[in-house]
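>> received
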Amino acid sequence: MRPAASRDLFAALEQISDPRGRQGQRHPFSAMLAAIVCATLCGARGFKPIAQWLRTQAPATWHWLGFKRRPPCANCFADLLKRIDPGDFEQAIRQWTGQLEGMNVEEDSLRAVSIDGKTLCGTLQAHQRAIHLLAAFHHQNGYVLSQTQVAPETNEAKAALTLLKSLVLEDKVVVGDAMFCQREVCERILDSGGDYFVVVKDNQPTLRRDVQLAFAKAEAFSPLSTT
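>> returned
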């Protein structure tokens, strides 16, 4: 990671409002958020792993993150994450990762972005559906560009229209399954300067039949001579 990109992380996190009161602020707000981000990038998945990762770092790393005393316990991270605005936190991370985009990608390479949904484990409640998220994943850099919750009364294709608004799609190809083989979704991608590669199945029977008929003429697609 380049040093400039690391400094940009702190600048992005400083834009988030601190929900804590003036009393009891033992640790800097940006230091705790930066520790959460760094620990998560290192594989920590939970409050206790985040705190354990931080405790194993050298004091020099604590100071670099912004801590002025011994790092907090897992409960401190849990209380903080429950109080901050998740939308603001995601926007800050999205701004930071947006500056990292293209650092490890060749100029002429194809930049693929997959959109797919996932139901979160442990979120099922009585008389309510489990939380279902739709995310856009950048293949080359290996991070999530953006995500949005799919409302219970709609589907991933409708949620994709909102998700695509938050992405810069120039010089990118959006990859999706048959769910996203919809005219509105494809038009949104093209209008944003991107391309798309989606699966055609029985959800679009007429289009699927047209594709099958087109590829039936092998000479129209193959550069090899036919026998």
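>> Confidence is low (pLDDT under 50) at residues 1-5.
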